[in-house]
């Protein structure tokens, strides 16, 4: 399979952050990584390959060098995407015989693309089993809902700009019969009794398959390219890299789309906890841990805005990222991105040596733009960091578009990155 087919397969099997992390876990297990559990004692030796999950929706994988580690080479991306979460009391019966799903927004999505698409439901279900509560992944994998538009004849102003009220306009139609609960469908897909389902974290997702398109198939479109394209690129680079003197780490955090402030998000103790415990298991004291952090680097990988074909005016005059133009390095004077001249130089030099193009993104000076997980994570583990991404259109649509050739560029860049070590010596850095 070529790299984009693999990417699309990964994305289609990852309708939620829980599924993305489970798929990453499987890749890691088949590459010889061993799972460590936060509630147990850890034994970690030089040369080990280990990973830790928290909440089943964030994961950190570490490759320990055979000799005393010299520093850290980390990358971070996010497992979640904007969606609609289904409320626990899921069904709204009536009026007019319709049964709708009771949903609320998860993250800041473009609403319009969610309309008139067959939608399915996936997430995590907590099941009563043998006297315990067990978390199970659930994916109905078939269309069970659709959010219908209002016909143009009934709302003549709809094409002049529409405010989508989540509580009114975004409720999906589910059935004409109140007899089939969502729990019944979930129970059927899990092979459990409906009465054994205790609670759920279920989300809508679009069933539309990803695809390559364009005169030369230069574009790739799919749900959740932000940020599973970066997750996939970092994961593959991580698995393919050669061993270095630094600890190589892949961090995939949940809840970036809602501010990262959960116990498994980038604004949690997760990364610091994992690094400290691994250092302790390797016989390093607190000073040794801080020395590793000081000789540490992080690539914060989250997709970037390509210049829009119909609205080039939203881009900066000079920094106009192109799809298939290589990896985007993101800058922001107000530190919404972590990039500075040193970290940009480190990443650009690694790309240059690998023959991977880089390009710049800055917001228009009068537009605040978005932010990402890099500087949030750095508040907990403060190492040198660069913000990067792949240029894409329609960020936070449920069907996004990026450059087909950029996937491989990211894999190559991250493979080269993870094969290096990072060391700081005063004002000099060695890679
Ligand atoms: Zn993102």
| Mean residue pLDDT | 96
Bound molecules: zinc ion
What radius of gyration results from the CA coordinates? 22 Å
Number of strands: 22
- What general form does the structure show? globular
Uncertain regions spanning at least 5 consecutive residues: none
Distance between the termini: 33 Å
Strand order of the largest sheet: 1-2-3-13-4-14-18-16-17
Task: Indicate the percent of residues in helices.
Answer: 10-25%
What's the number of helices?
Answer: 9
* Portion in strands: 25-35%
In this structure, how is the largest beta sheet organized? 9 strands, mixed
From the helix content, strand content and strand pairing, which structural class follows?
A: alpha/beta
How is this fold's topology laid out?
Elements: H1 3-12, H2 17-30, E1 34-36, E2 49-54, E3 58-63, E4 72-78, E5 83-93, E6 99-106, E7 119-129, E8 132-139, E9 173-175, H3 182-190, E10 197-206, E11 211-213, E12 219-222, H4 225-240, E13 247-253, H5 270-281, H6 286-294, E14 296-301, E15 304-305, E16 327-330, H7 341-354, E17 358-361, H8 374-378, E18 384-389, E19 391-393, E20 400-403, H9 406-418, E21 423-425, E22 428-430
Parallel strand pairs: 1-2, 4-13, 4-14, 14-18, 15-19, 16-17
Antiparallel strand pairs: 2-3, 3-13, 5-6, 6-9, 7-8, 7-10, 11-12, 12-20, 16-18, 19-20, 21-22
Bound molecules: zinc ion.
């Amino acid at each position: 399979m070529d790299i984009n087919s693999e990417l699309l397969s990964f994305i289609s099997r990852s309708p939620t952050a829980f599924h993305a992390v489970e798929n990453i876990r499987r890749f890691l297990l088949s590459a010889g990584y061993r799972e460590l559990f936060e509630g147990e004692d850890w034994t970690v030796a030089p040369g080990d390959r280990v990973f830790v999950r928290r909440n089943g929706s964030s994961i950190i994988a570490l490759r320990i060098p055979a000799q005393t580690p010299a520093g850290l080479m980390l990358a971070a991306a996010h497992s979640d995407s904007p969606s609609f979460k289904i409320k626990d009391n899921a069904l709204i019966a009536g009026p007019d015989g319709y049964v709708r799903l009771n949903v609320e927004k998860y993250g800041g999505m473009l609403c319009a693309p969610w309309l008139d698409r067959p939608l399915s439901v996936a997430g995590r279900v907590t099941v009563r089993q043998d006297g315990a509560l067990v978390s199970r992944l659930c994916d109905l994998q078939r269309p069970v809902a659709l959010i219908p538009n209002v016909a143009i004849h009934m709302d003549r102003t709809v094409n002049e700009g529409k405010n989508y009220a989540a509580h009114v306009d975004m409720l999906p139609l589910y059935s004409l019969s109140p007899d089939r609960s969502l729990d019944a469908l979930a129970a059927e897909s899990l092979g459990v009794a409906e009465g054994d389902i205790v609670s759920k974290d279920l989300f809508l997702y679009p069933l539309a398959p990803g695809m390559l398109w364009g005169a030369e198939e230069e574009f790739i479109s799919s749900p959740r390219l932000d940020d599973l394209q970066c997750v996939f690129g970092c994961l593959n680079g991580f698995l393919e890299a050669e061993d270095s003197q630094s600890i190589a780490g892949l961090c995939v955090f949940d809840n970036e789309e809602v501010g990262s402030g959960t116990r498994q998000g980038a604004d949690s103790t997760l990364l610091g906890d994992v690094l400290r415990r691994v250092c302790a298991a390797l016989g390093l004291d607190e000073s040794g841990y801080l020395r590793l952090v000081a000789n540490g680097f992080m690539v914060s990988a989250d997709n970037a805005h390509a210049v829009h074909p119909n609205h080039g005016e939203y881009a900066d005059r000079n920094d106009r990222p192109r799809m298939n133009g290589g990896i985007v390095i993101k800058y922001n004077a107000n530190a919404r991105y972590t990039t500075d001249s040193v970290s940009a130089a480190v990443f650009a030099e690694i790309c240059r040596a690998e023959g991977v193009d880089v390009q710049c993104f800055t917001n228009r000076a009068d537009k605040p733009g978005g932010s990402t997980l890099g500087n949030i994570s750095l508040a907990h583990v403060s190492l040198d960091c660069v913000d990067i991404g792949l240029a894409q259109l329609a960020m936070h649509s449920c069907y996004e578009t990026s450059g087909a050739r950029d996937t491989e560029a990211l894999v190559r860049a991250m493979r080269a990155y993870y094969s290096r070590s990072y060391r700081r010596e005063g004002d000099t850095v060695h890679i």
